[in-house]
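Changelog-adjacent note: as of this version, every example in the card shows the full chain rather than a window. The one below runs 329 residues end to end.
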Amino acid sequence: MFTRPGVLAPAAFVDWAPVRLLLTNDDGIEAEGLHAIRAALQRVPGIELMVIAPDGNRSATGRSITTRRPLVSRHVTFADGGVGYAIDGTPVDCVRLGWYELAGGRPDFIVAGINHGANLGDDVTFSGTVGAALEAHHLGVPGLAVSQIARNAGLGFSDEGGYDFRVVAAFAAELVARREEVGLTAGTVLNVNAPAGAPTEAKVTRLGRRHYKDALRTLPGEAPERAARHDAAEAVVTYGDAVRIGLYGVSAGHDPEEGTDLSVVGNGQISVTPVTLKWTDEPRRDALPADQIGAALTESDPAVAIPAVGVEDTSQAVQGGGVAEETGA
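Full-length structure tokens:
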């Protein structure tokens, strides 16, 4: 089911097929950022808005999906009467459910956000917000990931000072409205990050390089029960005492390179970075010594590397049964 948005001008007429836009996020369906951009998108002419979002916070889930259990979908009604779906899975699960018509039709456009916090530089490989938007690239539709930094967070990840989503919500909605003019064509995904304050410029950027300030530290308190494991014929691991460990920080530095998303946002402007799922490192692929890669297989000995324990040896040629021997045909 779709919620039908209003239009910017009462007399506006839309004489083309409406664009089905799927809105999701990784902070959860109740998050303030999602509802800020939802309100802005409802005013874009010619948009049919569907909301499918996680039922709770799924930050830093990247492009993970739920494969070991069924997903649960709950129909929700928002305070303004609009409707959506809350999913007990990941942001990418939400996009896939939209693609397979949970809300009544396939989306033509995917928007993820507004994220509570930055998704800059190396963050994009962890981000559930960017992960959801990148699914648009995979599906061949335009995608937009939108993130807002907290007032007192600098370029870090804290929520200190809270958020003002108004500027970036309006900007993202305008990008959707101008999708053809700004190059949001099929398979194009833009990663938008807004600083705190009132930016006066939006610049096209490339991804920068983060310097995370993580540290391992032991935390007080009792560790939770161990997660369920796959059943095995015999125990292969004996578990000892458990401790709680902190690792990730809320602040980070970055390389001071001109033209990166980190530098632009650090200077108080909005960054717009095109991102893609093309992961192959072409220069290094061409430079790899193919003969040595092949030799690593032909000269390896699985029996030495991983001694078989309770596993039938199938390395010998099968006799009969229709399987050709090496000296046969």
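Structural remarks: Residues 19-211+255-275 form a domain with the Stationary-phase Survival Protein Sure Homolog; Chain: A, fold (CATH 3.40.1210.10).
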